[in-house]
Design goal:
This protein is an all-alpha fold. The protein has two domains: 1-71; 73-136. The protein has four helices and no strands. Helix 1 (6-38) packs antiparallel against helix 2 (43-70). It is elongated.
Length: 136
Amino acid sequence: MISPTLDSLRIFLHVLAVAVWVGGQFVLAGIVPSLRRDAPTALPIVAKGFAKVAWPAMIFIVFTGAWGLASIDVSDQSSSYMVTFAIKMLLVGIAIAATLIHSVGTSKLAKALGGAAGLLASLLAAYAGILLAHAG
């Protein structure tokens, strides 16, 4: 068996938190239309329940991402790596901002655009992370 390391634990926690954040958004996208139709009063309860799991996951994403950044020497990285990293950070910021707009928005437009932009930015940030993982 390959010996576990602190780096492997960090990466596992990071990927797990990303799976919770992004996967949960897909689950909600699948159940929200049915809830709206069949049990509209349950929608705020489900949303609050998801937020209790999703936002701590995002904190883990940021924490483990910063931990990963601290584990590399950025001066040894190529300019393409750093550009990809900057794009990933921008996408994470957009994902957080869009999800906040979705969460606190009161109009259908804010909810729809915030949710869609948050999911898209989250997916693109995750893909940028895969690119960075394979750059080394």
